[in-house]
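Exercise 3.2. Students should predict the tertiary structure of the chain below and write it as C-alpha cells, then compare their answer with the key that follows.

Predict this chain's 3D structure.
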Amino acid sequence: MKSRLLLLSLNLVMTINLNAQTRCEKHQMADDGIIRYSVIDIIPEHLKEYLPLALEVGEVSMKTEPGVLAMYPTVADDDSCRVTILEIYSSRDAYKSHIASRHFQKYKQSTLHMVKSLQLLDQKPMNPKMTITSDITERP
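Answer key:
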C-alpha cells in the first residue's frame, strides 16, 4: 500500500511537472549548465511529511524558473525512503537563483530535520549535442 501511494504521488508530480513546463519559457542549456542527481535518504517517520514539500518545490520551480529545465523525482524500488531527483539547470547562475529562491529556501528549512543524508552527484553528458527540451506536445 505504501509503495502504491508513493507511485501515485510520483505519477501526480510528473504530470504536474509536465504541465508546469508549458507555463514558463525555458532558457537554453549553456556551457556551464548543471546536470545533477540529488540522492536524498529520508528518515522513515518523516517520509509522509517530506513528499508533499518536495513535490511543491519541484512544481513551483518548473512553473516559475526559466533556468530550471528539469526536476524529475523518483523513488527507489527497494527503499521508499530514498528519493533521487534528476535536476537540470541551464547555467550556474540559474542554479544559484534556484537555491536562493523563496520556495527552495522554504523547502530546505522545512525538511532539514527529515533528511538522513544527501548526495549531490554532478554529471557530464556523454553526447553534449543531445538536448533535453521542456516543450510538451499534447496528444489528441
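Discussion points: The first strand starts at residue 34 and ends at 42. The chain is about 40% helix and 25% strand.
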